[in-house]
Amino acid sequence: MTFSEIRKEILNDWLFGVLPKVLKILADNKYRKFIIKSNKNETIYFKHHEIISKRKNRFILIPFSYGKADFKKYGMCFFAFTSFRIGKKLYYARVDCNGQSVSFYSWHLLERYYERLYGYTDRITEVHILKFFKENSIALPYEQYNTKYINGEFGRTDKGILLGQRIDERTVVYNTFITEEMAKGKQIEISDFLNGQLDNLAFDSLGNRYVAA
What we know:
Blueprint: H1 3-26, H2 29-38, E1 44-45, E2 49-52, E3 58-65, H3 68-74, E4 77-86, E5 89-95, E6 102-106, H4 107-118, H5 126-135, E7 140-142, E8 152-156, E9 161-168, E10 171-178, H6 186-204
Parallel strand pairs: 6-10
Antiparallel strand pairs: 1-3, 2-3, 3-4, 4-5, 5-6, 7-8, 8-9, 9-10
């Protein structure tokens, strides 16, 4: 299967089976009680949930909130991901907030992320994968980035830079991770530009809503 074919399968699972279960979970009153009681305007992550689709694909849902003020205006936030193999290579796939596109993250990227950011070279577990998505919940893209790949994609997160390829308008594959210090040439210019946008998003999340993951 190609990335585009897998994206179609993931979104079909998502829209016609997984999403209704997600909405049911998020409607649980325990989240509202905890957030209101916490009386804090900071990001709160809750215990993740496992959802199995009709095709037996496993989705991981992570409910979260940007804090009391944001919750009162917009309710719960969440992000979700699943995994697929293409040949012998393992990828994690995250559905975007509007359920229209999918970003793929290679196993190689996860290894480079922990090696280059934390100096960690041991076995990657699901704990590390959950941590990665929490720390990189927003990836701002720069689609016109020129690399050795056709349609190279540059994604900026709070932790660093994701490099990969745009397969089509709804499918992105990120293949590796570099830190800010590793950026060279035009990468530095693009990184600084997108980092400024990330700073604005982080500021807004303290009280004014932007796009929830």
